[in-house]
Specification:
The protein is α/β, with parallel strands linked by helices. It contains 13 helices and 22 strands. It has a 13-stranded mixed β-sheet with strand order 3-4-5-6-8-11-14-16-18-19-20-21-22. Strands 10-13-15-17 form a four-stranded parallel β-sheet, with no helix packed on it.
Length: 464
């Protein structure tokens, strides 16, 4: 059966069902006198219909919950008392428990008491710090015993990575895999991503803290075996013995790269069906070349760092040139500040962003760092082109703690030069940290609707 439910509504229904069960028991035999002198049974109106649902539907509903919450929910009805043992999904997170010891005991009991005849379709285990070898083996034994049915697997822990990866490779039915592994907190050894994981049905892959090893040609291509890959997430990964990381996939639609500061290699991307590109930088932006940019409609570029270089600015500019058909662009204000460092940027006629419909900017303040120094130097150069007096005034202003504009003047108009009707939304969690008047003046026609968290520039505010 295929059922579609709203998870939030599910939780509300389940946790209020106990009230309705009691209410129905109280009212079921009570009678209400009507104006015609007859009586009617109120029980039909208040009868507990949630408990009358088929067991398969209740199990499906419970599968949306974390395992801890699902076990708690099953005490709401005597009929549900043992249902948690046959839920086809397990989601366990140590951060939901007050201590790791309590979590370990809970996990051990879940693995011991669960109905082994029920096929397990999804298992997500997240444990902070190291896991006891005995408990790890018990977990991996459970995974292996359901390897022919398991479709979604998530593992985030510190333990024997050799045993874990061997177990993962046996799960041939996997369609989704999330791996965040470390040998031990104190062990700096890199976890090498296996060159061949025989997972023919895999469509979603999420990796954290792995190293990709290159070949004789100096190129690492770790995802070539996944011929059905639709979504790829790379978090805090690096490349060993290679200068190039190749991501080649005919089926890839969504690519996310987050905080890969140690990934010093260049990126070669061959993904003709890529639609979404999501990038969060930490220390530098990666050069990306190849093909497959023409179908990308949604681009998110975030950077919370305060260090930058001119090379970063040029890389960002090349990204905008490559992603020619962007419809939705989301950036942090630091990204716009880095982009503004490109020499004579506003003189450039973009050959991209013709289809831009939405530009979202998240304001982030800068207190120190090389980015602040570069912005101030750039402002001084522009002032010097006007007169020495302008330079003197600007230097004096910097000495009195003048902060560069959060959104450089003219940068939004530059990005909208080919799509002047594109809607601009600007958000911030700290409105008091910014000169909103300055931002309003830098974006012509801006109307600030909400000082608390969000203000927007309506599409009707065209360029002059």
């Amino acid at each position: 059966m295929n059922f579609n439910f709203c998870p939030k509504l599910i939780i509300i229904l389940l946790h209020t069902s106990k009230y309705f069960i009691g209410l129905s028991d109280h009212l079921y035999h009570s009678r209400i006198r009507t104006k015609f002198g007859r009586t009617s049974v109120a029980g039909d109106l208040y009868k507990d219909r949630l408990s009358d649902l088929p067991e398969c539907i209740i199990l499906h509903i419970l599968s949306f919950l974390g395992t801890k919450l699902a076990v708690r929910t099953c005490v709401l009805s005597t009929r549900w008392k043992h249902l948690w043992k046959r839920i086809p999904t397990l989601t366990l997170n140590s951060f939901e428990f007050s201590t790791l010891k309590i979590f370990s005991v809970f996990l051990s009991k879940i693995l011991s008491l669960r109905d082994t005849s029920t096929a397990l379709h999804a298992f997500d285990l997240r444990r902070g710090r190291n896991i006891e070898p005995r408990l790890l083996k018990k977990f991996l034994k459970c995974v292996s015993s359901h390897s022919t049915h398991l479709q979604r697997l998530g593992i985030s822990l510190n333990g024997d990575t050799g045993l874990i990866l061997k177990c993962v490779s046996s799960c041939r039915a996997l369609t989704s895999l999330k791996l965040s592994l470390r040998s031990k907190w104190s062990d700096p050894t890199e976890i090498l991503f296996p060159k061949s994981l025989n997972l023919p049905l895999l469509t979603s892959l999420d990796l954290a803290h792995f190293a990709f090893c290159g070949d004789e040609s100096g190129c690492a291509e770790p995802f070539l075996e996944f011929t059905k890959l639709n979504s790829l997430v790379i978090y805090d990964c690096k490349v060993i013995d290679a200068q190039i990381l190749t991501i080649s996939s005919e089926t890839l639609v969504n690519l996310t790269m987050n905080y890969n500061s140690s990934l010093l290699a260049k990126i070669k991307l061959y993904a003709p069906n890529l639609c979404t590109f999501d990038y969060t930088g930490s220390h530098h932006f990666h050069e990306i070349s190849g093909s497959g940019f023409s179908l990308v409609k949604k681009v998110n570029i975030k950077s919370r760092r305060f260090s930058a270089s001119m090379e970063d600015a040029l890389v960002l500019f090349n990204w905008l040139l490559n992603f020619v058909n962007i419809e939705s662009l989301t950036v942090t204000s630091t990204v716009l500040q880095i982009l503004s460092l490109v020499p004579d940027l506003f003189e450039v006629k973009l050959r991209s962003l013709h289809n831009l419909k939405s530009l979202k900017v998240k304001l982030i303040g800068i207190q120190e760092g090389s980015l602040l120094e570069l912005i101030e130097d750039d402002m001084l150069k522009k002032a010097a082109a006007k007169s020495p007096e302008e330079v003197a005034k600007l230097r004096e202003a910097f000495e009195t703690c003048l902060e560069p504009p959060a959104i450089p003047d003219g940068i939004v108009d530059f990005l909208r030069q080919n799509s002047p009707s594109a809607e601009v939304n600007i958000t911030t969690k700290y409105p008091s940290s910014f000169n909103l008047k300055q931002i309003e003046e830098s974006i012509k026609g801006a109307k600030i609707n909400n000082y608390r968290s969000r203000f927007s520039v309506p599409s009707s505010s065209g360029l002059p």
